[in-house]
Amino acid sequence: MQTNMLLFRLQVIGFLLLFFLLLDLYTWRGVRDIVKKYIPKYIKGAKYIFFGLSVLIIVSVTVLLFFPELERYRLPRAIVSGTMVTVMGTKITFLLFVLAEDVFALLQWALRKVLPKKQEANKEPATETAEDVLPK
Question: What pTM does this model have?
Fold first, then answer.
């Protein structure tokens, strides 16, 4: 019975690691673009804060999973749960905007490939050259 519980806890931690990693890597692209545009000298600090929150949550969940005696205290569990919901909610909301931007860029690219620009057939070619316009 103890082995099954340990296996389950390791699976939960593995899922959280993978989920946070994929979520963070995808949303970091959007955060990086914003930070580069407005405050480029703070990009390293923004990276540490962005990924540090996920590391903090994973470490906290791991501690709560491997030390079940902490479950009788509500405060540690409430702090970890509240932090996790807040950070994940923010990152998932940001993920929706980054995903929408990617879908919009993909649609623009596809439309450019499918519908090339129409050449204006009625427009007459220019008869003046640069030598005609520039003073001698």
Answer: 0.65
- Rounded to whole angstroms, the Cα distance separating 27 from 83 reads 18
CB hemisphere CA count around 72 (13 angstroms):
1
Indicate the DSSP class of residue 67: -
Tokens of 86: 């807040």
Please provide the average confidence, as pLDDT, over all residues in the chain.
80
Token pair in block for residue 55: 């590391």
- Rounded Cα gap, residues 94 and 6, in angstroms: 34
Q: How far apart are CA 20 and CA 15, in angstroms?
A: 8
For residues 29 and 11, what is the distance between their CA atoms, to the nearest angstrom?
A: 28
d(CA 20, CA 76): 21
Torsion of CA 14, 96, 91, 86, to 10 degrees: -100
Determine contact, residues 27/98, Cβ cutoff 8 Å.
yes
Residue whose tokens read 């998932």: 92
Amino acid at 85: V
